[in-house]
Structures are given as C-alpha cells and as structure tokens.
Write a structure and sequence with these properties.
Low-confidence stretches: none
Largest sheet: 2 strands, antiparallel
Number of domains: 2
Strand order of the largest sheet: 1-2
Number of helices: 3
Mean pLDDT: 79
Strand content: 5-15%
Order of helices and strands: HHHEE
Shape: elongated
Radius of gyration: 26 Å
C-alpha cells in the first residue's frame, strides 16, 4: 500500500513538472513574448513629448508674449520637462528636439527621427497644434 502511494505521488509530481514546463515554454514563446521591434514605442514616446513641449511653448508665448529662443528656457516653467529626444538618445549621445522660433507667433518643432537628419520622411512632428 505504501508503494502505491509513493508511485502515485511520484507520478503527480512528474505531471506537475511537465505542466509547469509547458506553461513556461508557452508564455515565453506565445502571446506574452516581449515585443522585439521597439522603434514604434520610441515614435509614440517622442510624439507624446513633442505634444507636451508644444503645450509649454504656447504657455510660454501667452506668459511672455513671444516664443522662447531655445527649449532650455522652458525649464523656467517646469523643471521636470524633458527636452531630450528619445529617438536621438537611442543612437548614442543625448540629443534634443529641433526647435526654431520663426517670429513671435510661429515656431518649428520636430524630432529628426531615426536617421538623425533634418527634413526627411521619418521626422516626427507634434500631433496637434495647441492654441489658447
């Protein structure tokens, strides 16, 4: 009788081990597999940061009557504002977004994108203009 119980527990533990191994293999190769191409995530992150910077640019323009000369001046409004381009950081040294104040009513703001060059199809712009 004792041998039958041991055999039962031995089979039970073996079955639990096989089920556990199958679950691990399924989860690591199945629907929960980590996303390999993270470039789309960087595009979304960059677009979100550009929207936030556009908001602060408009706020700065309302407060001071003109757009700032550089993005660093936006740090006066919010020290936690990130002006670093996550797409540029991915390639190496820390870069910032391309910004140019055209006049007191207009500005140009975008990320240079994956290739790191200005005015190419992969440049990322703010998704919507914000006006007060």
């Amino acid at each position: 009788m004792i041998k039958r119980e041991r055999r039962y527990y031995r089979r039970l533990f073996w079955l639990i081990g096989v089920i556990g191994l199958a679950a691990v293999l399924f989860l690591s190769t199945g629907p929960f597999k980590p996303y390999k191409d993270k470039s789309n995530a960087f595009v979304i992150l960059t677009a979100n940061q550009l929207d936030e910077i556009a908001y602060y640019l408009e706020f700065y323009q309302v407060k001071y009557g003109k757009y700032p000369d550089s993005l660093i001046q936006l740090k006066e409004l919010d020290r936690s504002l990130s002006i670093s381009d996550p797409y540029s950081r991915k390639k190496g040294p820390k870069g910032i977004f391309y910004y140019k104040s055209v006049d007191s009513a207009n500005y140009v703001l975008f990320s240079v994108g994956k290739d790191g060059m200005l005015n190419t199809p992969d440049d990322i712009y703010p998704r919507r203009p914000i006006r007060y």
